[in-house]
Amino acid sequence: xxxxxxxxxxxFFNLVLKNVLRRSSRSALTIIGIxxxxxxxxxxxxIAWGFERGWAHIYQARGTDLxxxxxxxxxxxxxxxxETIKPELQAMSHVLEVSGVLSDVFGVEDxxxxxxxxxxxxxxxxxxxxxxxxxWPDAKNTVVIGTIAAExxxxxxxxxxxxxxEEYTVSGIFSSPALTENGTVIMPLPEMxxxxxxxxxxNFFDMRLDPGISAxxxxxxxxxxxxxxxxxTAFSPGAVAQNNMAIQAAKAMSLATSLIAxxxxxxxxxxxxxxxxxxxxxxxxxxxxxxxRRARIMRMILFESLLLSFVGGTAGCGLGLVATHMLQTSPWxxxxxxGEFSPMLLGxxxxxxxxxxxxxxxxxxxxxxxxxxxxxxxHQ
Length: 380
Known about the structure:
The chain is α+β, with helices and mostly antiparallel strands. Helices cover 53% and strands 18% of the residues.
């Protein structure tokens, strides 16, 4: 037989559950509102993280230790700069290799936006790529395409490929350890410079450093590059997002959208609980009259709010996972990025939902607990 305190606790939570279920339609609408807000947080955050991590994975797959590019990137790709500085970078201490890269986003066939990259031949930038079929570009106007890009645009080895106003032949299909790179088109650097009309220009230098270099020496090398070339910056692959205005803007937009959705969810919780309190004023008056403490009344109302938020938050996490999967498999996004999920993201989203419940339920709980028994009992 359960002890009396356990019975009281069970009775209290049963009352909380019944109070939520007796207004099922309003509770369901509130749960849906919270779920949409949390789904926005989960899906937009995972996409933003995936966008950031996708670029970092490409550099890590190439074995890049430092990335040199324009100091300010106002678009997804930084503005090109002369590749003539390569010998100076190559001559710096602890530098094993410097390879030029030129990338941009183009309309390819029916796809409105695919990343096209020019890699310097004869460098290790190609080593991480594995041919699935065909051969590497060995003639003018030949390219290789990633496995995802080949599937998206329906191309195979030997097919013609329209990039902007130029036509190329697909010489091979490759796979990369970085999922994002499998949705790209790659060509030799001179071909890319010709396509963009940027002869002798790159927008990245990938640098491989001495494996024995210390963290202090790596920082010193970055500072030397910045001092020698004031318009350029050097950073590790993990810091790509912090040095790209487009990625930062995407993260800011996802944050702003999530905040709006969360505010709407909090207002929905407050409205539901407040209406529930006003409809139950006589019941609250009876509970106060028979000896319930005001703190207990406040806890009851807060727990109702938290229960709605917990259910809505759990549903929102699931909805966010589904929404992200649908987004990353859509023709516009597939192969360009993948959602980045973690227990921290889902746990954080659920905590946000509970915080919404506490925030939205605090005022109604305080109002209900401050009511005098006589005033509550006289309410019609």
